[in-house]
Write a structure and sequence with these properties.
mainly alpha; 14 helices; Na+/H+ antiporter like fold
């Protein structure tokens, strides 16, 4: 199935990691400074429709999950990374194609809006959080955030959209956009494989990651259901929209976290949680696919 394709990219990264020791650093540089900014700008500029409330919903959902994780992992020795893993969802690389596979093209605008909310979260909260952990220099996390390419590309895209409205940039450069997304997916998942080659999954990682995955799933459903209910009673969402969006808590941790962590911290403490949670989520999505 198409949802298993990312695992082939992980396997590719595993092989690359054996051959090219510093490949993760180069891959993360390309993603953070070139391909992620390209996708952010083109996605926001080409987005049509007045579904700003879904963008806000997606962002608030992740932010609330981040705050909940702050309480859940107070005493965890890897608390900052656990908080990001708990709150950042793989809506773009996996959620969007899976949703289209399950529900058809009708779900595309809604999931793209949710994806944009996730991109904003990743370009702000995640980058700020990781920069606050970095000891590479004395520059403040805020300054690092405002000079990061993903955040700058987000500001540029919002400014252009405000000035000129929707620009059908994807329509004119669809192949370029598709290639950029593909490269983003391949490099991002390859980084997972590269780090797995350096630090394989051990038995002791599984228990923590599975408990984490169940907590994230159930708390995510509760939090998202509350937010969706508020929007439904505010006449901002239909029941059909809610059915589509309820897939989000099933989605795995965003693999983009390990990309950002590799770039800003030169580490991959998130690797085991991301991999085991991705397997956990794929099983749930396969079961949902059978049900549907």
């Amino acid at each position: 199935m198409s949802i298993l394709i990312p695992f082939s990219y992980i396997f590719l990264g595993f092989i690359i990691g054996k051959i090219w020791k510093n490949s993760s650093q180069y891959f993360s540089y390309l993603l953070i400074n070139i391909f992620i900014p390209i996708v952010i700008v083109m996605t926001i500029l080409s987005y049509q429709g007045n579904i700003f409330h879904i963008v806000l919903l997606s962002y608030l959902f992740s932010l609330i999950m981040y705050k909940i994780a702050d309480y859940l992992y107070t005493k965890h020795n890897n608390k900052p990374i656990m908080k990001l893993c708990f709150s950042y969802y793989n809506i773009g690389w996996l959620g969007l194609p899976i949703s289209i596979y399950f529900f058809g093209e009708v779900v595309t605008p809604i999931m793209i809006a949710a994806y944009i909310g996730g991109m904003i979260y990743g370009s702000t909260v995640c980058i700020y959080s990781l920069n606050s952990l970095s000891n590479s220099n004395q520059i403040s996390p805020f300054k690092k955030l405002f000079t990061s390419m993903p955040f700058l590309s987000f500001l540029v895209a919002v400014a252009l959209k405000f000035l000129f409205g929707t620009i059908d940039i994807i329509e004119y450069y669809s192949q370029f956009y598709d290639i950029s997304k593909l490269i983003m997916s391949i490099l991002g998942m390859s980084i997972l494989g590269i780090w797995l080659q350096k630090s394989p999954l051990k038995k002791e990682y599984w228990k923590e990651a599975i408990v984490f995955s169940f907590n994230r799933l159930f708390i995510g459903f509760i939090v998202l259901s509350i937010l969706l209910s508020i929007m439904y009673f505010s006449n901002l969402l239909s029941l059909e929209d809610i059915n589509y969006l309820l897939i989000i808590p099933l989605l795995p941790v965003a693999a983009n976290i390990v990309v950002l962590e590799t770039y800003y911290l030169k580490s991959a403490k998130s690797i085991h949680i991301i991999m085991i949670n991705t397997i956990f989520s794929l099983i749930l999505l396969l079961l949902l696919g059978v049900y549907l």
